[in-house]
What we know:
Helix content: 10-25%
Largest sheet: 4 strands, mixed
Radius of gyration: 18 Å
Organism: Psychroflexus halocasei
Shape: globular
Protein name: Peroxiredoxin, SACOL1771 subfamily
Distance between the termini: 41 Å
Amino acid sequence: MDKHQFKVSLQWKNEREGVISSPxxxxxxxxxxxxxxxxxxxxxxxxxxxxxxxxxxxxTASISSCLMTTFLAIAENSKLDFEDFSCDAIGIMEKKDGxxxxxxxxxxxxxxxxxxxxxxxxxxxxxxxEKACLISNSVKSEISMETKIITQK
Length: 153
């Protein structure tokens, strides 16, 4: 695969808030309403703003969403018939050697499958997905995963 670029624009709004957007997302099924995300300093920091996405939330979300998109591709290639995928994620920020770092991300994917026979295959697809996730492979944070496979009743 060739080298690709992903363009993002950031504009400061006021105090500890800004807005991020991407000119690449203005076409297609996206609208101006969902082309941008308000972003702010998180509450743990001085002047932090509650109830607005922070870089730390986006960092954690990028790892979780990469797991999902990688899972979808591998599940399709593996012909895994599943009903649902969801994933809670917890990003851990701490201070090390005088610097704040996102040191860990805990992923908790849940896959709902149609039949019990797909249990092992679903687990293998999840494990392959975690290992192949390009965002996880691009960061130095420790990534852990606690999987759950549910059989549809």
